[in-house]
């Protein structure tokens, strides 16, 4: 008799698919099928989204001039007016003055943040007349500006030569071309301090960056204020040579001059 093997029949069932019939648990612990509509009580109990708060309008500064009015850029253009963008001082100045001469309002347009002006709105006929005048006087105005710039540069050169008579010629020219460059915004072009102080600050800045290890100190991670203190005596030493000041007098100036 052949031995019999105990073969247990394995019941083959359908594979389980997770997630197909899974429900969504409700607040009371019961579940409902996915895709079925929510009961009315669940819909009414859901948190409602809070409406977004409307941003308050940016405050525009109020003009003290009765013939000027400050407005944001979104305000509709008045009839017969045009926008004169900022940028050309001659055109903007004459448009503003001629509009006030005929007792009309000049609208100063601010951007959406209220921190920067975009231009002015003035009557169109005045803008047209000013454009014609600007074109007719363009060459003469350019010549006058060039003459004035040469005069300012000549004055700065004379001050440098008087204060630092032993300064090398190439250093003097570099300072004039850098610190006193028109439109650079550097110390030589500021109108907030007197000319003698501007000359001194321009020379010190040149010495600091060219004749001391100031740039290397910054590249090495030294704090800007600390680096300036470290090269201060070197700057004064170079100034002393360019001024022709005796050592005793230089030491006295070193203690009196602020850092």
From TrEMBL:
Task: Quote the Pfam families the UniProt record gives.
Answer: DUF2293
> What is the source species?
Penicillium olsonii
Q: Could you identify this protein by its name?
A: DUF2293 domain-containing protein
- Please give the residue ranges the record annotates as the region Disordered: 1-73
Give the transmembrane region(s): none
Q: Which residues form the DUF2293 domain?
A: 160-243
Family matches, as InterPro entries: DUF2293
**Compositionally biased spans, kind Basic residues:** 8-29, 47-56
């Amino acid at each position: 008799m052949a031995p019999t093997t105990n073969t247990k029949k394995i019941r083959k069932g359908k594979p389980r698919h997770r997630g197909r019939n899974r429900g969504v648990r409700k607040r009371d612990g019961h579940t409902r099928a996915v895709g079925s509509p929510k009961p009315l009580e669940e819909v009414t109990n859901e948190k409602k989204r809070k409406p977004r708060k409307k941003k308050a309008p940016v405050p525009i500064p109020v003009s003290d001039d009765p013939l000027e009015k400050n407005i944001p850029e979104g305000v509709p253009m008045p009839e017969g007016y045009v926008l004169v963008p900022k940028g050309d001082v001659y055109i903007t100045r004459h448009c503003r003055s001629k509009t006030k001469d005929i007792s009309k309002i000049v609208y100063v347009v601010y951007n959406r943040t209220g921190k920067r002006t975009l231009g002015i709105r003035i009557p169109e006929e005045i803008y047209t007349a000013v454009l014609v005048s600007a074109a007719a006087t363009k060459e003469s105005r350019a010549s006058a500006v060039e003459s004035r710039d040469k005069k300012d540069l000549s004055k700065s050169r004379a001050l440098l030569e008087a204060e630092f008579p032993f300064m090398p010629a190439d250093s003097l020219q570099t300072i004039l071309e850098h610190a006193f460059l028109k439109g650079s915004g550097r110390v030589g072009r500021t109108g907030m301090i007197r000319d003698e102080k501007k000359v001194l600050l321009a020379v010190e800045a040149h010495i600091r960056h060219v004749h001391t290890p100031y740039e290397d100190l910054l590249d090495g991670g030294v704090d800007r204020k600390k680096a300036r203190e470290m090269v201060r005596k070197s700057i004064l030493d170079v100034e002393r040579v360019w001024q022709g000041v005796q050592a005793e007098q230089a030491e006295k100036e070193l203690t009196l001059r602020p850092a």
